[in-house]
Structure formats: structure tokens, C-alpha cells
């Protein structure tokens, strides 16, 4: 019996033909995909020489798992569980052994909240996207940065600007997003033509079948429904929304959790790279 598995790798499609005499386990394919995605991430270098690193900005509602996603990416690439306190407006680099750092950086910002007096102001997000916010700035709810601020960068370079925007939302809270939070997220996404993708986190908490076995992440009808709903809410294509389980209670990384993280990271980098090439 021949089964054909189509795996999307970049802009190419690879057909893997496997002769089956016993039931094949998904981990065989996931290990292959992990290697492909990991090699892509490890070898990535921006082709636009006007930037040194691709800047990825994460935003979303409070408690969505933005910091946990950064730590999860770090854990995958380091091959061990890592954790660091993510505070203020700081770019987070990931070490690449003795070779310095990977050629992309994450920036995490305060979460959106329904109450206007809490959470990050939408105007601050727009300023961050355009590169006007200096490292270390502390956002003040309901009091956006002004040009008189000492942390305001009047003439940001392409290196200072954000190259891809990532919306992070818990999979079980898609239907609970308030109109005010959605409005802020949609408003941020139209800034300067910056590409946007979304990550649905905490998939294990949202779906019992995935909680029992992470390999069910792409089989879950419930998670597929949440992807479709978020696509409508944010106006994003479904293929720009990725399902991820962040590392939390695990003692060491494993391929089943790594696979969705690496797949999402690869696509995020690819979208950002396309953007900076146009911005030459």
C-alpha cells in the first residue's frame, strides 16, 4: 500500500512515498519536517544588507502566551528548556552556539486589554511598528508616547522598524475576544504594509484530544473551527494562522511540540524576508 504525503517546504512541494506494511506514525513525518524547518531557521540570513536582523513583533491580548512563545522558540533552538523574564520594550536575541546570535529578533509588548485605562495604547503599537520606540521604553497605559519623549526615535532606520507582526491569541479564547481588543489588533495590522500572521497558543488547554496527544493538533475539528473564526475576525487568510503549544511544564524539548513551533517560525521568517526585500 502506497501513501503519498505532501509536505510544503518553502515554495516547493516534496512528495514522500512510503511503502507501508504497518501503520506509520506521524512522528516519522514530523521528524523530517523538523529537520527541514530547523535547517532553514539556522541558515537564515537577511538578503537585504540594510538590516542586520529580522525584527518580529508579538502583540495580542493580555495573557495570550507571547513571552512563552519566545521562550519556546529559544528552547527548541537551544535543545533544552529555557526561560527568561521578558520585560519592557527590549529586543530578545537567541544564541546560536559559538556563532553569535540567530538572524532574527523578537520584541514583546504589553498586551491589549478591553479597559481603555489598562494595556498598551494602540498608538504606541503603531510607533513601535515604525521603529520610533527606543529599546528599554516602558509603555504607560492610556498615555501614548509623544515626540517629546526621550525614547522617541525621530528617524528610525529599516533595522529599527518591525518586519513582521505576529498576533498571539489563546485557542480557547477566540470567541471571547472583546470588540475593543479586536479593533486594536486590526488597526495595528494595517500599518506600513507590514506582513501579519497569527499564532493560536495553548492548543492543549483548548482541546482535550490534543491535550491527550499533541499529534492530534492538525486533526482537531475544534481547532480548525477556531482558525476559521480568527481568520474572519482579523481578516487574515487561514494559511497565515498557526497552531502552537508552548513549553510550560515539560523538562526537555520533544519533536511533537517542536514541529508546530518550527513550522510557524519558518513561515514568520519567510514573510518578514519578503517584506525587507521589497523595502530595499
UniProtKB/TrEMBL annotation:
It comes from the Eukaryota. One of its GO terms (biological process) is immune response. This is G domain-containing protein. SUPFAM superfamilies: P-loop containing nucleoside triphosphate hydrolases (SSF52540). InterPro entries: P-loop_NTPase (IPR027417).
Amino acid at each position: 500500500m502506497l501513501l503519498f504525503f505532501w509536505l510544503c517546504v518553502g515554495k516547493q512541494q516534496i512528495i514522500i512515498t512510503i511503502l507501508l506494511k504497518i501503520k506509520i506514525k506521524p512522528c516519522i513525518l514530523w521528524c523530517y519536517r523538523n529537520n527541514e524547518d530547523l535547517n532553514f531557521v539556522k541558515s537564515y540570513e537577511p538578503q537585504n544588507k540594510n538590516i542586520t536582523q529580522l525584527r518580529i513583533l508579538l502583540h495580542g491580548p493580555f495573557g495570550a502566551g507571547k513571552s512563552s512563545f519566545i521562550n519556546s522558540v529559544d528552547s527548541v533552538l537551544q535543545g533544552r528548556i529555557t526561560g527568561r523574564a521578558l520585560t519592557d520594550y527590549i529586543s530578545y536575541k537567541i544564541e546560536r552556539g559559538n556563532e553569535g546570535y540567530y538572524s532574527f529578533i523578537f520584541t514583546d509588548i504589553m498586551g491589549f486589554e478591553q479597559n481603555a485605562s489598562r494595556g498598551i495604547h494602540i498608538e504606541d503599537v503603531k510607533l513601535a511598528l515604525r521603529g520610533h520606540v527606543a529599546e528599554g521604553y516602558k509603555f504607560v497605559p492610556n498615555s501614548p508616547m509623544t515626540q517629546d519623549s526621550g525614547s522617541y526615535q525621530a528617524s528610525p532606520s529599516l533595522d529599527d522598524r518591525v518586519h513582521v507582526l505576529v498576533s498571539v491569541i489563546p485557542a480557547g479564547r477566540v470567541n471571547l475576544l472583546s470588540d475593543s481588543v479586536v479593533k486594536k489588533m486590526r488597526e495595528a495590522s494595517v500599518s506600513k504594509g507590514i506582513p501579519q500572521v497569527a499564532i493560536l497558543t495553548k492548543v492543549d488547554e483548548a482541546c482535550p484530544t490534543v491535550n491527550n496527544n499533541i499529534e492530534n493538533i492538525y486533526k482537531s475539528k475544534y481547532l480548525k473551527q477556531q482558525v476559521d473564526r480568527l481568520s474572519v475576525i482579523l481578516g487574515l487568510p487561514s494559511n497565515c494562522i498557526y497552531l502552537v503549544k508552548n513549553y510550560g511544564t515539560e523538562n526537555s524539548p520533544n519533536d511533537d511540540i517542536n514541529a508546530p513551533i518550527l513550522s510557524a517560525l519558518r513561515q514568520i521568517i519567510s514573510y518578514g524576508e519578503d517584506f525587507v526585500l521589497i523595502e530595499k
